[in-house]
Each structure stands twice: as structure tokens, then as C-alpha cells.
Amino acid sequence: MTTQSKKDLCWCLFWLVLFFGLTCALCTIDVQPAGPQNSTIGLAGINTGFHAFTKESALLDKLTDIPLYIAFAECAFFAFLGLYELIKRKSLLKVDRSIYALALIYIVMVVLYFVFDHMAINMRPVLIDGALEPSFPSTHTMMTLTIYGTGIVAFRQIYKNQKSLNTIVLIVSTALITFAVAGRLLCGIHWLSDIAGGLFIGAALIMLYKFLVSVFQ
User: What per-residue string of b and e applies to 177-189 under the rule 16 or more CB within 10 Å gives b?
Assistant: First the structure.
């Protein structure tokens, strides 16, 4: 294990510790029936105060779906790239290992999505079609950050000598992440802690991908 891979693993663990720390805080600190239908909310003072500031925007909610759809297109690109390499090189062993690592991260991300979708730590600050839904962490934030963040690393790994391409990917990905996260913060369908949780787990998955790439080399 190289020095860089050790650093990547430590950063992964750091973000995971922050995520679990936030989760514990939501379960124990300032838990009040402050949500819709008197649903209990952890860190209620901070969360309700921020939500009162942002209000709600259905339009912004819809607009933040655009970066996620583009992210799914990026996932499809890497899937087809892996298939192309397999057909061209006629061996599973000759497919770029960074693509295998990316597939593993995508699988972990999907599993976490379904796990979090059934965790009722905090409920949304608004009713969705008249019903309460779990909101912690923001899986929208988690997936957007994870896909674009790992994509930046993957492009640099696969297209090492194409600096212009990597610069474009970095700028566009950063812009899409920023818009998605800011939009989810301000659209009013999540608590502040939901966005923070999504960022923490997304950052952990990115660092896990960097670790896997460095180990697979």
C-alpha cells in the first residue's frame, strides 16, 4: 500500500466518521416534534431555522434533477466504455481496472440509496404526495457528488494524457455539483443536516474510489 493510498483510506474513514457522528447527533440532540404531522427531527433548532430561511421552491426542486440525469448519462458512458474495452481486448483482465473500481462504487451507492430510503432518522420538512418520507441523508446529493467526483478521478486515470479533456470534465462536474447541492439546500424539501449527510457519505465514496484505484494499479 502506497503513501497516497493510505491517505485516501484515511480521508475515506474521516468522512465516514463525520457521517456517523452526524447520524448520532440527529438521534440524540435537540430531538423535537418539529416536522410535518409532528414528526420528530434531530438538531431541530438548526434544521427548522434554516428551513424557515430557505422556504420552498418546486421549480428549483425540478431543476436540481437535471444534474442527476446528466450524472446517470455519465454512468452509462463508463458502462459502455467498459463494454467496448472488453470487446476490443477480448479479455476481462484487460479492461481498465479503474472501470471495475467505478462499477463497485456504483453498486455500493445504489445499495446505500435503498438503505437510506428506508431509514427514518429524519423525515422531510414537507409532505410528498400527502405522505411523510425519510430525508436523511439526501440521496440526491450523495449520488450527484459521488458520480461526478469519481468521474473526475476516472477520466484522469483513463485519459491521462488528455489535459484539455480533464480540465473540461473538472470544470463542468464542479459546476453541476455546486448547482445540485446549492439547489437542494434552497429548494426546501430537505433539512440542512440531510444535505450535510449526503455530502459526507458522497465524499467518503469518492475517497474510497481513489483508494481502490491506487491499490489496483
Answer: bebbbebbbbbbb
Cα 76 from chain centroid? Answer: 17
pLDDT tens-digit readout, 161-208: 899 999 999 999 999 999 999 999 988 888 999 999 999 999 999 999
d(CA 25, CA 38): 19
Q: Is the pLDDT of residue 48 over 80?
A: yes
Q: Which residue range(s) make up the domain with 179?
A: 3-216
Domain count, the chain: 1
Q: Please tell me what DSSP assigns to residue 137.
A: S
